[in-house]
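It would be a great kindness if you could assist me with a short task in structural biology. The matter concerns a single protein, recorded as an amino acid sequence and a row of backbone structure tokens. Kindly check, if you would, that the fold set down in the tokens agrees with what the sequence suggests. Thank you for your consideration; the sequence and its tokens are set out here:
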Amino acid sequence: MALQKQCIALDGNSLTTEDLISLGKGLLRIKLTPEAEEGVKRAREIVDNIIAQDKVVYGINTGFGKHANTVISKDKLKELQENLVRSHAAGVGSPLSPERTRMLLALRINVLAKGHSGISLEALHAIIDAFNASCLSLVPEKGTVGASGDLAPLSHLALGLMGEGKMWSPKTGWGEAKSVLEAHGLKPLSLKPKEGLALINGTQMITSLGAEAVERALAIARQADIIAALTLEVLKGTTKAFDSDIHAVRPHLGQMQVAWRFRSVLDSDVFSSEITEKNRPHQRVQDAYSLRCSPQVHGVANDTVAFVKSILSTEMNSATDNPLVFPERDLIISGGNFHGEYPAKALDFLAIGVHELASISERRIERLCNPSLSELPAFLVNEGGLNSGFMIAHCTAAALVSENKVLCHPSSVDSLSTSAATEDHVSMGGWAARKALRVVEHVEQVLAIELLAACQALEFHRPLKSTAPLEEVHRLVRSVVRPWDRDRFMNPDIEAVHKLLREEKASTRSA
């Protein structure tokens, strides 16, 4: 019998990127805090009073965008909301994975739980029931310009909840949304005034994909330091550049943290290295920049990721739809919180910052493979000529770094006017998020190649041992990839080590 999943209580104010990743993996169920339920009810009362009093308020009884001045009759308000969702479900491209759709849905629930959207508590509970059953709408990945938020993807998300379009669950697989919901004993949403707009207006596509990108960037940044330290070790580099006094006089937090990680795994009074000890009489005064300047380069990448995580954490717990309901003031106010510029700019910055981990890693791979720089066999394999070793693995790393240079061009510097010039400045944040994820994946793959190459280089130093932490990393890699004594199919080795990095296993107890 399956164990009951742990429940997370959402209040719209305290969701973390780590929580969102767990929700995406299906590890958590959702409920609302009592305070959130009260807030949702109070906001809905404001909307119901507006309808009862025949007041004209944007998004409740008017058209949308250019049609904002068109008043809709009371008997057409349900149709107004449903038409909004249907017409805006105009995305294209591959569907989001179940994990990413769960993240998108969970984040939308969190925003609705803030109590400023005007959705009914009944509708919000129905959406939570769908999440907990993993009934996930088909959401194409392309179509948002990040203006009135992520209208197209969030409309696809809402469409399935209405029992229209396609939906997936582990129990049914892909099918008609209404049938998937019925298979779980759930009814399609019937939208009340304001509820369609409440479901589709916001930055949750940008931010949920961004949360995955930032968490993966955090993981690979931590591991990049250990991988670079292993490369320094097998290239017989000096540890002098990581002296704490050097970094204390340029005290950027990320730089100091990276230098500490290097010191914690390299030869020291705590951990000794036979390789370093043997090479000490011949130790270079200083190394090439790709080795010596790792704290400075990796450091700013770490600081960038931390900054972006802060922006996204605020965005995840913000009311980003329009208009917003303020029960304490008995007001509904139109504004611009849906504009995606904050997460878009942050995710463009993330791509630029984390890319540098791959850029400098590729230079270290070159040093490992080049016998004139490494004092090791060419391309890290014996019988060169007969065997090519890591020759093309290095080319793959170079190709990925080159792709990243194009992907790092910021999408948020672009804007195209939409909605008959009502939405005349947009963020292009959806593409910022999607390409940030691609950049992070390329960084993971380049560092997987460096880790493979560094472990292979270590074989040529045997029987000498490295430090205990670096030997632990070597044992981890050797648990999934055996040493190269002759050429073989390399792609499975790269994929196996990439998987280790995705699971953040290339770390050490001390670092």
